[in-house]
Amino acid sequence: MQLDLLVEQFKKKDPSAFEKLYGMYADNICGVINTIVKNDSIAQEICQDVFIKIWNNSESYNSSKGRFFTWILNIARNAAIDEIRSRSYKNEKKNLSADYFVGILQNKEEEESSNVDTNGLRNLVKNLKEKCVQIIELLYFRGYTQKDAAEELDIPIGTVKTRNRSCISQLRENMESK
Amino acid sequence: MDVQEYIASGILELYIAGILSDKENLEIANYAKEYPEIQKEIEAIEASILTLSKKASPGLKYSFKSIMDRINNDVKIISINDKRGVPISTYVGWAASVLLAIGMFWLYQQNQELKSEIQVVEQQNFNLEQEIADSDSSLEKTQELLSSIRDKNISVVPLGGQDISPTSYAKAYWNKENKKVFIDAKGLPEPPDGFVYQVWSLKLSPLTPTSMGLLENFDMDENKIFALNNPNESEAFGITLEPAGGSESPTLEQLYTLGVVSAS
């Protein structure tokens, strides 16, 4: 329960607790943002803004409403989605598969300078079916509701929960087998 | 409650995604405290998403310190805006308008003072010009007078003081050519109110006085020289004090000066 203590200190505006939480989640949050904006430097800028926002709103986090990570995940994806809307990314729905986070893999192979761990990412998603990539993207990185995800993927709403469960299980297996 | 079935439902995965209702979130948070398997499963699901998202990280460009620096700067900027920025500009605005009003009033006052000073100076200037004009005309008169009494045709008749006023004296400058007499009355006292000096031309045998005129405005005249016409063959001149307006014949008791024309 060390995390709970850390979060309590953070809510009291303890900078050292905030620093530890930053160390724990900064890469993940920046990664989430990058799956959406698909641009390293823009992702880094938004990521900094997100952590400032997290600090300024620390007292609004309530553990009864969800995990701390889930809370900052929500703030991060909202910020990233606002960003791509403001930049009016036009080809959002033109090529769905390239738009999903695995699209980062394709982009990154062309740009050698990237910091993204493409090999690690490739290993994680190697035997994930495209429908798993899609549903994980929509639910975790886009914040789609079950209903919106069902419509987007054209599947029954009851299927969203079970399909996601099996996809996450596959992901966990990939992690363990590494 | 069947914990395994609950886990298998896939709701915990949605819990991590943050897309459940507040009611469901609260329920799961309570189950997690009650059932360690559920807490463990939640952490495992979270770990998988953490791992996946970390792989997509572009790396951290900003240090934690730079984030804190920005936070502290933002706080300072906000506090300045809230506590000082708006009031200062308001006060400055009011102060400026008050100063402007005071300044304009002061300038108005200055302007009024200058205007009245200009009026005073104009008045002084006018007075000086008047004095110069007076002096000029006075000088002119004096020169005219001087040239008149220097004329070769002038005979000077001193008039001596008589019993009533032994210290009085006068002089008559008589130009027989143009029949004019200038009376220099500097040596006569100022006549009392209601009286005037009257100048007489006299024939001695028999004594016949003829009025030549009055020395009007005696006290106002600066040089006390009066020009009178004298068409008579005068043998003497006398000056008497008479009631205002003059008399038909001289009041001899009030004879101030008398002088005889010397035979030439």
From TrEMBL, chain A:
SUPFAM superfamilies from the UniProt entry: Sigma2 domain of RNA polymerase sigma factors, Sigma3 and sigma4 domains of RNA polymerase sigma factors
UniProt keyword terms in alphabetical order: DNA-binding, Sigma factor, Transcription, Transcription regulation
InterPro entries xrefs: RNA_pol_sigma-70-like (IPR039425), RNA_pol_sigma-70_dom (IPR014284), RNA_pol_sigma70_r2 (IPR007627), RNA_pol_sigma70_r4 (IPR007630), RNA_pol_sigma_r2 (IPR013325), RNA_pol_sigma_r3/r4-like (IPR013324), WH-like_DNA-bd_sf (IPR036388)
Any single GO BP term: DNA-templated transcription initiation
Originating organism: Maribacter orientalis
Family: Belongs to the sigma-70 factor family. ECF subfamily.
Top-rank lineage group of the source organism: Bacteria
Keyword match Transferase: no
Keyword match Disulfide bond: no
Any Pfam family the entry gives: Sigma70_r4
The RNA polymerase sigma-70 region domain, residue ranges: 21-88, 127-173
Protein's name according to its UniProt entry: RNA polymerase sigma-70 factor, ECF subfamily
Single GO molecular function: DNA binding
UniProtKB/TrEMBL annotation, chain B:
Transmembrane keyword on record: yes
GO cellular component term, pick one: plasma membrane
InterPro entries (UniProt xref): RskA_C
UniProt keyword list: Membrane, Transmembrane, Transmembrane helix
Bilayer-crossing regions: 88-108
Domain Anti-sigma K factor RskA C-terminal: 94-251
Name of the protein: Anti-sigma-K factor rskA
